[in-house]
Amino acid sequence: MAHVEGRLGLLYEEVLRRNPGEAEFHQAVREVLESLAPVVVKHPEYADAAVIHRICEPERQIIFRVPWQDDSGTVRLNRGFRVEFNSALGPYKGGLRFHPSVYLGIVKFLGFEQIFKNSLTGMPIGGGKGGSDFDPKGLSDNEIMRFCQSFMTELYRHIGEYTDVPAGDIGVGGREIGYLFGQYKRITNRYESGVLTGKGLTWGGSRVRTEATGYGAVFFLNEMLTARGQSFEGKRVVVSGSGNVAVYAAEKVEQLGGVVVACSDSSGYVVDEKGIDLDLLKDVKEVRRERISVYAQERGALFVPGGSVWDVPCDIALPCATQNELDGDAADRLIKNGTAYVAEGANMPCTPEAVRLFAEAGVAFAPGKAANAGGVATSALEMQQNASRDSWSFEYTEDRLASIMRGIHDRCLETADEYGSPGDYVTGANIAGFIRVANAMLAQGVI
Question: Which residues form a coiled coil (predicted)?
Answer without folding.
Answer: none
